[in-house]
Write the C-alpha cells for this entry.
Amino acid sequence: MNFRLIIRVLGSILLVEAGGLVLPLLVSLYYGEDTWLCFTLVAALCAVLGFALVMTPTGSRDLMQGRDGYMAVALAWLGLSAFGALPYVISGAIPHYLDALFETISGFTTTGATILTEIERLPRGILFWRAETQWMGGMGVLVMFLALMPKLGGGSVHLMRAESPGPIKSKLVPKLGDTAKILYAIYVSLTAAEAVALRLAGMGWYEAVTHAFTTMATGGFSVKGSSIAAYSSPAIVWIIIVFTFLAGVNFSLLYAALRGQWRQVWRSQELQLYTAIILGAIALVCLDLSVQTGERAADSFTDAAFQVVTIMTTTGYATRDFALWPTFSRSVLVALMFIGACAGSTAGGVKVSRVLIHIKNLRRDLGRIIHPKHISVISMDDETVDEGVVSACHSFLVAYVLVLIAGALVVSWDNLGFEESLTASMTCIGNVGPAMGALGPTGNFSILSYTSKVALSLEMLMGRLELMPLLVLLNPATWRDR
C-alpha cells in the first residue's frame, strides 16, 4: 500500500474542497449573511491541512496501483464529507454533527435524502453549498481533481476507474487528464445551459443556478421545501425533464454526439434500453393515474413523465407526492429506483448497462440448457464483453442486494413500516433521494434514529462509489502489504 501517495491525493482533494467553499462564501457576502465567516474558517482549515498533506514526500518511483486507487477514492469521499459538514454545524443550520454529516453525504453522493424540515428558512449561502456539494459529487470529485491537476502519471487511471460509475470504464482520449477535462467541459456547459433556460422560464438567477447544479448532478436538492411543485410552471417542469434525461445518458455518448458521431449514439444498446424503459414506464404510470384517479390525460402525462425521468435518473425531484399514488405506479417507481440510468452518467442505481448484461447472460444460459455444446459470447454495440466484466456484474449485483437488505433491516428497528424500511435503503444505495410512505417527497429522514442515519450514510457512499472502494477499505487484506 502506497500510503504516502494516498495522503498526497487526500491533500489535493481537500484543496479542491477549499476552493469549492469560496463560492458559497461569496454568495453569503452578496446577500449580507454572516455565514461567510463559517465558510472562511472551514476553507482555511481545508487549505492548511490539504497543503500540509500535499507536501508529504514520495519516492521517485512511486506509482499508484489498483488497490491504492480504491483506497484513495474511499478515504477522499469520507474526508470530503467530514469537512463538508462543518459549515452546517458552525453556522447553526444543522446543530448536530451526525445530522450535518448525513446531509453532506447525501449531497456529495447526489442522493438528495434530507433531514431538513424548514429548508426555506436557511441562509442562501448554506443552501448554495448544499446544492454545490451535489454538483461537485455528480461528475466526481476525483475526476475534477484529475481535470485540474492531472499529474499522477499512469496511476491516475485507477482513481477514475474506482470513482466512475458503470461496469466498463474507458478513456475518451488517450490522455486521462484530457478525458477528465472533456467530461467536465460537457458537464459545465449543460449546467450553464440549464441555468439560462430556467432563468428564462421564470426562476431568479440564484434558484436557476442551484437547480441547474442539482439537476445535472441528478441530486434533487431544492431551495424550496415543496421541491419543483413550488413553481407551478410547466416550462420549468419540462426543462428539468430534458436535462435530467441528458444527465442520465452516458457522457461518452454526449461527447460522440458533439463530434457528430451520431451512428455510435443511435446504435448504443444501453441508450436504446434506457429510452425504452423510460417511455414504457411513462405510458404505464400515465395509464394507471388516468384510470385509478380519474386525472386528465394531459396532467397525468406531465406528472408521469416528470416522476419517471427524475426517479430513473435518481434525481428525486417531485411535483406531486407520488407516495400517495396507486400501488401500481409506486411499484413502477420503485423498480426504476433499483435500475437507475446509464453507466458513465451522473445517476445512481444498478445501471442499465448491468441490467442489459444480465439479460444477455440469462439468454445465453437458457441457450446452453437447450444446446449444451454451443459456445457463445456476450456482446454490446458490436463489441465482445469480457467474461471478467460479466463476472464483476454478478458480484456487484449480489453485493448490492446484500447491502440493500442489511440497510433495510437496520432501518426496520425504527418501526416505520416495511415500505419505508425497504425503500429508504433502496433510495440511499441507489442515490435517489425520497423513499415511500413517511419518507416520501413531502417527508424527510429526520424521524430516523442516528443508527439508521449512519447506516444509510454508508449506503449512500457505497452506492455512489459502486460498493467496491468502501468494501476494499473494510477488507483487512487491504491493509496488509505483500
The beta strands are 379-380, 383-384. The chain has two domains: 3-251, 385-479. The mean pLDDT is 87. The longest helix spans residues 387-412.
